[in-house]
Specification:
single chain, 415 residues, alpha/beta, FAD/NAD(P)-binding domain, Enolase-like, domain 1, 3 domains, 10 helices, 26 strands
Length: 415
């Protein structure tokens, strides 16, 4: 292996992607300096549990660290509590919040995403919360201990995970969603409709086609005014209306951006020596070439591993099947692949049992699989999606068909 001890890698962002880049660099044999900038007050931690276990009834859960206490010293990785203010790509240096500058041979932007602001009057009132960081989750955990009525704005993954956690505590929960169905951008209509029925059955007042007009506070507390002129009293309000990629540093440095930091198939940006990974990266789909940006732990860690190899000279294209998951109370949703509105849904199993999957066909090819409380189906689907597997609804619904059995059959066939 080529000697790289005189090179340095600077990673901006200490989330899943940033930490994994550093870990993978060492695993791949990089011997130069590796530095990570962490702009949060806490040591690097896992974000997904913040909207699930951390907020559940009687929870004493603490955030799970991304790596053990001796990791950074053992791997000779420098973790700096600092934020990047600007990037000079010509000088290959980054100015930090304290005024200090750090040089680099290779720069990795793992800046993640930030919550979209709630665009209505009253969004900044006390008692109105977003959920993205550990600090956010701690505030919510404290507020939940005294709340009775909760209003959630947005029926995406975060909103419904929080709603289910609050409902499990015995609280009155109302969810306002301006779209006609929950999780509409991520799920097929078939799965989305099932979740609507299930959450209503579990006692969550899920209001579809109803957005928020304003939030008020008076002597009686908070109230949320919806687009139907209805007011919902609340002890706390949580909003989850999507995220925006954090591209400010990249834009100011002259990097190309388009719903994220634009990268090529090897995850290189438009400027030599700079890579981008995770929630902030807009990358080309291997088959279609269409740009996509994914917000998931899987994408963050897999791209981080690939970027580490790319830094070390690997020219191969990033090509991993994306997968996602969400825990909403007792419901575990797992998705392999990315669905599109025109995909044809084919049901596997009985939704009434609370355990089923939905295969999504695109022009006769298996494009994605949504699984509810069916982890074995999900594991099998991850082996099948992305292989260009031609299928028909009749084949999938034929007696004895099993997605698990199919995965075993094709596992030995090269993709």
């Amino acid at each position: 292996m080529e000697n790289n001890s005189n090179e340095s890698v600077l990673i901006i962002g200490a989330g899943q992607a940033g930490i994994q880049v550093a870990d993978s660099l060492r695993a791949e044999g990089f011997t130069g300096a590796v530095t990570i900038l962490n702009d949060e007050a806490h040591s690097p931690y896992q974000r997904p549990p913040l909207s699930k276990d951390y907020l559940g009834p009687g929870s004493t859960a603490e955030p799970l660290p991304l790596r053990g206490p001796g990791f950074f010293a053992d791997k000779d990785i420098t973790l700096l509590a600092a934020s990047a203010v600007s990037v000079d790509t010509e000088a290959r240096s980054v100015t930090l919040s304290g005024g200090m500058s750090l040089g680099y041979t290779h720069l990795v932007l793992a800046t993640g995403a930030a919550n979209r602001a709630l665009p209505c009057p009253g969004a900044d009132l006390e008692g109105v919360h977003a959920l993205r960081t550990l600090t956010d989750a701690k505030r919510l955990q404290d507020s939940l201990s005294t709340a009775r009525k909760v209003v959630v704005i947005g029926a995406g993954f975060i909103g419904l995970e929080f709603a289910a956690a609050a409902r499990a505590r015995g609280l009155e929960v109302t969810v306002l969603e301006f779209a006609p169905r929950p999780m509409g951008r991520a799920l097929s209509a078939t799965a989305s409709d099932w979740f609507t029925t299930r959450h209503l059955r579990d006692g969550i007042d899920l209001r579809l086609n109803e957005g928020v007009a304003a939030i008020h506070r008076d002597a009686h507390g908070l109230s949320v005014e919806s687009t139907t002129d209805t007011r919902y009293p609340a002890d706390l309000v949580l909003y989850g209306v999507g995220v925006n990629p954090r591209t400010e540093l990249a834009q100011a440095a002259g990097l190309e951006t388009e719903n994220g930091i634009v990268v090529d198939a090897a995850l290189r940006t438009s400027v030599p020596g700079v890579w981008a990974v995770g929630d902030c990266a807009s990358f080309p789909h291997l088959d279609s070439g269409a740009r996509m940006r994914l917000e998931s732990v899987q994408n963050a860690t897999d791209q981080a591993r690939h970027a580490a190899r790319s830094i070390l000279g690997d020219e191969s294209a990033y090509a991993r099947t994306p997968w996602f998951w969400s825990a909403q109370g007792a419901i575990r949703l797992q998705i392999a692949g990315v669905s599109e509105p025109g995909d044809e849904p084919v049901l596997l199993g009985d939704p009434e049992s609370g355990k089923f999957s939905i295969a999504l066909l695109r022009n006769g090819v298996l494009a994605a699989v949504e699984s509810v409380n069916s982890p074995a189906d999900h594991i099998a689907a991850r082996k099948l999606v992305g292989r260009g597997l031609a299928m028909t609804p009749e084949e999938i619904t034929s007696p004895g068909f099993s997605i698990k059995a199919l995965a075993k059959t094709v596992a030995s066939v090269p993709a």
